[in-house]
What we know:
The structure holds 2 protein chains of 2 kinds. Chain A has 8 helices and 21 strands.
Amino acid sequence: xxxxxxxxxxxxxxxxxxxxxxxxxxxxxxxxxxxxxxxxxxxxxxxxxxxxxxxxxxxxxxxxxxxxxxxxxxxxxxxxxxxxxxxxxxxxxxxxxxxxxxxxxxxxxxxxxxxxxxxxxxxxxxxxxxxxxxxxxxxxxxxxxxxxxxxxxxxxxxxxxxxxxxxxxxxxxxxxxxxxxxxxxxxxxxxxxxxxxxxxxxxxxxxxxxxxxxxxxxxxxxxxxxxxxxxxxxxxxxxxxxxxxxxxxxxxxxxxxxxxxxxxxxxxxxxxxxxxxxxxxxxxxxxxxxxxxxxxxxxxxxxxxxxxxxxxxxxxxxxxxxxxxxxxxxxxxxxxxxxxxxxxxxxxxxxx
Amino acid sequence: xxxxxxxxxxxxxxxxxxxxxxxxxxxxxxxxxxxxxxxxxxxxxxxxxxxxxxxxxxxxxxxxxxxxxxxxxxxxxxxxxxxxxxxxxxxxxxxxxxxxxxxxxxxxxxxxxxxxxxxxxxxxxxxxxxxxxxxxxxxxxxxxxxxxxxxxxxxxxxxxxxxxxxxxxxxxxxxxxxxxxxxxxxxxxxxxxxxxxxxxxxxxxxxxxxxxxxxxxxxxxxxxxxxxxxxxxxxxxxxxxxxxxxxxxxxxxxxxxxxxxxxxxxxxxxxxxxxxxxxxxxxxxxxxxxxxxxxxxxxxxxxxxxxxxxxxxxxxxxxxxxxxxxxxxxxxxxxxxxxxxxxxxxxxxxxxxxxxxxxxxxxxxxxxxxxxxxxxxxxxxxxxxxxxxxxxxxxxxxxxxxxxxxxxxxxxxxxxxxxxxxxxxxxxxxxxxxxxxxxxxxxxxxxxxxxxxxxxxxxxxxxxxxxxxxxxxxxxxxxxxxxxxxxxxxxxxxxxxxxxxxxxxxxxxxxxxxxxxxxxxxxxxxxxxxxxxxxxxxxxxxxxxxxxxxxxxxxxxxxxxxxxxxxxxxxxxxxxxxxxx
Lengths: 352, 581
C-alpha cells in the first residue's frame, strides 16, 4: 500500500504541490501525468526522500516515511525504494557491472551474492554482454537499461521512474514501454512513474493521477479518465485524439455554440460542450448544428481519417471514414451531435 | 518482495535543509571579504582620519593626490580597453571565422600573454627601450645607437602599449567564445535573405556578439585601471601617477587614511564600470544562441589576405609573448642591458658575492633573500591553492545544492565581490583588517597567515568558478543516486565524488597556484622583509636599478607559471578509461 496524504510542498512563496492525496495498493503501476511544471517530479522526489514535504504524510506499507507536519523524514536509502533518474545518472567512472554492484556493496551484501545478483539483473534486462563497458560506450537505450538494472538490483518494494523514456527516440520508446511492463510483472514492485506523455500513461498504468498546477485533477484507472473526465483539463489532456471543447454562451433566448446559434439545452448559461472526436462528423451542407471551419490538417489513422479545423482560436478534430474532398485552407462544415458527450463549467468542473 | 526491510530509522529534520551549511559558508565569506572592505571604510570615517576624504577630494593637494592620477587612470582604462577589444576581437575573428593559416597556433598564442605576469612585460620594455632620462643602465635600442625619445621610454605611451599587450588575451578569450557560438546557420540564414559580407557583419554577427564585446571591454577596463606593476615600473620614474601607484605611495609613506580613501575610490570606479558593463549586457540584450545541431561553421575566405593577416597576427603575438621572454632571459645574462646579446655571464644566476660586481649582490641561487622568497612563494602558492579550492568547493556546493533563499543569493554575490576590488586596494583593506590585533587575536601583519588569508579571499571568484565547474561535473543526480543507495557522506566522497572530480580539482588548484605566485598587486602592500615573495623582490630590485636580478627572478616566476599551467592542461586532458569514446 502506497499512501500519500494531504501532501503540500512549498518552495519559498510558490506552492509546487497543493494538498495531494493518492492511495494505491501493493503492486500497482501508478502514473503521475501532467504537463511540464505541474509538480509531478517534485512529488516523485518527495516519494524518494530527496525532498521533505512542507505538509502531509507519505506512507509506504503502513510505515510513515515522510511527515511534513512533524518535519520527519526517513533517509532516502532506508525507504526500500529505488529511483531511476531522467538523466539515468550513471556513474561515468564505473563500468556497467560496477554501477549495478556498488549499491549492493553499500548495503553490505556478501561478494558472492552480489556477483550472482548482478548477473541476474543484467540478464533480466538483456545487457549481460555489456557488463564491462563504461556508460559513455553505450547507446541511450542501453544506458537506460543499466539505470533500471542498478535500481532494481537491491529489490526495492517501491520503484520510482522520472520520465525515463523522454530521452529515447520514438521506436525505442515503444520497445522500452513493453519492457518496463514486463519488468513490473517480474518484480511485482509498486511502481510510480512520472511522464507528460498521455499515451505512456494510458498503456502502462493501473492507476493514473493527472496533475496540473500542483493539484490532482483526477485520479483513477486509465479507462475512467477517458470515459468520465472530471475536468475540462483532463478531457483535453487525455485521449488520442484529444476531445473537442466548444464554448457555449447564452444569447437572448437561445445559445451560441462555438459562435453560432444552435438548438441545444446546456445546463448553464456559460459552459463548455465536450464532443469526442469520433462523435464529430463532417457535413457537405450547412445544418442546425454545423460549424464552418478552415481545414488545417488531415491525416490517415488506422484506416480512418483524422480531420482538424480551425476558426477564431477554436480547434476541432473529427475522426471520419472518408477524407473530405476539400483542400487545406478550404471551409468545411463540422457537424456536432445533437447532444454533446459531457458539459463542463467555465471553471473546468464537470456539470453534466 | 521486500527482503531489505524498511528499518524505520527516521530522523527529525530540525532546520530547513542546508540552513546550517549555508550559514557557515556565509560566515566564512563575510569574514574573508565583507569585513576587510567594511573595516577599511570605517577606518576612513574615524574622527581623526575622516579628514582624509576632504584632503583627497577637495583639499589643496587634491589635484596631485587624486585628480591627476584619476585622469591618468581613466585614460589608461579607456584606451587600453578599446585597444584590447579591437586587438582581441580581430584575433578572435581570424581564429574563429576565417581560413587564416595556422589558426590553432594563433589561438593558443593569443591566450599566452595572460600567463605572463604584467610586470614581466614592463621589465622587458625597460630592457629594450630605456633611455638615459633617469640614469642607470640604458636599454638595448639606445645601446645600439638609436635615440629613444622620452615619450617612448617612459610614462603613458609604454604603459598603454604594455597593458594592451597584456590584457588583450582576456578580450580574445571572451570574444572567441562568443563568436564560436555564432552558428553557421545564423550566417547562412542571412545569406539566404540576400545579405552580403558587410551587412552580415554589422547586422548579425556584431549584435549577437555585442554582449561579449561589452563584457570584454569592461573586464579589460577594470584590469587596466587597477594594474599596479606596469605604471609603477614605467610611469613612477617620471612621476606619472595612477590611482594604484598613488595608493601604494600613500601607504608606503604612512599616510594610511589617504591611501585607503584612494583605494575606496578606485574600487568604486572599477566597480562602476563592471556594473555598467553588466547592466548593458543583461536582460533583453543577452542572447542565448541555440547551438543545437549546427554544422561546422563555413569559414570566411580571406583569399589573398591570408598570409598578410597571418603575419600581422603573428607580429602582435610575438611582441606580447616571445619577445618579452627572450629579452628577459637575455637581460638576466647580460651585464649591460645596452648590450643584451654579448658578454653573457651566469653571475646573476649562480655567481658568488663579488664586491666589484653589482654591489656585491650574489646570484639568485646564492642569495638568501631570494631563496627564502622562493620557498615562501611556493608555500604560499600551495597553501592558497588548497584553501582556495576548499572554500570555493564549499561555496559552490552549497549554492548548487540549496538554491533557494536569500543566503544562497548572498553567497553567490559575495564570492564574486573581489572581482570589483583591485588587488592593491584589497591588500590595503587587509592591512586595515588584520594589520592590528582584533580582540584576543594577534596582529597578522608580516605573517605567512596573512598572505594566505588575503590570497584566498582575493582569488575566491576564481576558485568558486572552478568549484562550480567541478560540482557540475559530479553534482546533482549523480550524487543523489549515490545518496539513494544509503552510502554515507565519506563513502560517497571516496567512491563517487573524488574519483570524478579529482582532475578538475587538481587543475583548478594549479591555476590558483599560478595566479598567486605571479601576483604583485595584492602582495606588494602585505610584503615585509621577514616574509618576502618573489614578485615583490623582483619589483624592488627593478626599482633600485638591479634589472638583471629582477629579470632573473621574473624568469623563474615565468618558468614556474608555464610549467604549472602545462601540468594543469595535461591533467585536464589526461585520458581516463571512461572518457575515451
